[in-house]
Design brief:
This protein is of the alpha+beta class. It is built from 13 helices and 19 strands. The protein has 2 domains: about 1-190 and about 350-405, FAD/NAD(P)-binding domain, CATH 3.50.50.60; about 195-345, no CATH class. Strand 7 and strand 8 form a beta hairpin. It is elongated and about 85 Å long.
């Protein structure tokens, strides 16, 4: 059978290699000069391949958007299968905090090269052209046409073109246009796993400051409740906040509007409020005759000191031996609950993942085939599914790609 796969990313390469391994004549179309460009950027170049999650229900729970749709795909390929797959291709893996799985080499190129090798070794032919449209006949696909003018006949077509994030890697929404031409509805794409814009001007003052080993809470002000907790690293930027815990937090924020969400940062999560007060008192006693602003360098990063001083309401030039117990208590409370008001997501081209895409109600979850056009399949980020950080989104790509490749 002649199979065309559109898109040479994680899902497309998996689908192409799987279909070819099952005896089909497979042609992969990739618009870039090399496949898997976005994969090279994942995990800051280290590639968080999957999450070492053994329970299917927990895996689905890590996908807040249409997780149940992936039951069949995850059943086909669980993280343990992904780990075995890459190690069988000669890429040893390791498990880090939170079950995150990385190549031992810490190089995403090893993962990308392994996928390219998997496809090529099974006989996949790669054409470096951009697909423009489907060729159809009697309600079924019969091939594709490229912008370069190439026409290729096919009995089955798998669309795995990604979303709108990282457009420099070729993710510019081509798959949405192709799906629309087949009658599919597209859930409006929006950013997920994305930096956040903030109301407070002090974020620009703190630009470039990285805080490690802090904890955060995301507060929904409408419900006056905490919707997410995390521990790790965040970075202040000229527009607001970024870093691993912020990207994860963003995926829990729905129906974004100005001031709906507040990030509460615990700058000293290892200390209770009482132990922190004792620590502050000790620092003050060692700097009795110093101004308040000069007595915090042992407690906070230098860049953060003037911001904390201003927010504390304690005079910068007030001597530490004049600071009252009440003032010290306000300072400790501020360090345990340093708040940043969120105003918006950053643009979708800065997002790690696109939320939205092809409506899952129009895709057969057991095969990834379109319910509207025979012979048309979908895999990866082009579908309206997205997950938390931690390797889950790449697992979606591998699982849906594997299922589509097998189903053809």
């Amino acid at each position: 059978m002649r199979v065309v796969v559109v898109g040479g990313g994680a899902a497309g390469l998996t689908a192409a290699g799987t279909a070819a391994a099952n005896g089909h004549d497979v042609t992969l179309f990739e618009r870039n000069s090399r496949p898997a460009r976005k994969l090279l950027l994942t995990g800051k170049g280290r590639c968080n391949v999957t999450n070492n999650q053994h329970d299917l229900d927990n895996l689905i729970a890590a996908v807040p958007v249409n997780g149940r749709f992936l039951y069949g795909a995850f059943s086909r390929l669980m993280p343990s299968g992904t780990i075995d797959f890459f190690e069988s291709l000669g890429v040893p893996l390791k498990v880090e905090r939170g079950g995150r799985v990385f190549p031992v080499s810490d190089s995403s190129r090893d993962i990308a090269d392994a996928l390219v090798k998997f496809a090529a070794s099974n006989g996949v032919k790669t054409v470096f052209e951009r697909v423009k449209e489907l060729v159809t006949e009697d309600g079924a696909v019969s091939g594709v046409k490229t912008f370069e003018g190439t026409s290729t006949a096919a009995d089955k077509v798998i669309i795995a073109t990604g979303g709108l994030s990282y457009p420099q890697t070729g993710s510019t929404g081509d798959g949405y246009d192709i799906a629309r031409s087949a009658g599919h509805k597209i859930v409006s794409p929006k950013p997920s796993l994305v930096p956040l814009c903030a109301h407070e001007g002090f974020c620009s003052q703190l630009m470039g400051l990285s805080l490690k080993n802090i904890s955060i809470k995301v507060i929904d002000t409408d419900k006056n409740s905490v919707i997410y907790n995390d521990f790790g690293e965040l970075i202040f930027t000229h527009f607001g906040l970024s870093g691993p815990v912020i990207l994860s937090a963003s995926s829990h924020m729905r129906e974004m509007r100005r001031k709906k969400y507040v990030i509460s940062i615990d700058l000293k999560p290892a200390l209770s409020i009482e132990r922190l007060d004792a620590r502050i008192l000790r620092d003050f006693s060692e700097n009795l005759n110093k101004n308040f602003i000069n007595a915090l360098n042992g407690l906070l990063p230098k860049k953060l000191v003037p911001v904390v001083v201003k927010l504390s309401g304690i005079g910068a030039s007030q001597k530490t031996n004049q600071i009252t117990k009440e003032q010290r208590g306000r300072l400790a409370a501020l360090l345990k609950d340093f708040r940043v008001t969120i105003t918006d997501f950053r643009p979708i081209d800065e997002a790690v993942i696109t939320s939205g895409g092809i409506d899952v109600s129009e895709i057969d979850p057991k095969t990834m085939e379109s319910k509207l056009m025979r012979g048309l399949f979908f895999a990866g980020e082009v579908i309206d599914v997205d997950a938390f950080t931690g390797g889950y989104n790449l697992q979606i790509a591998f699982s849906t790609g594997s299922l589509a490749g097998m189903s053809v």
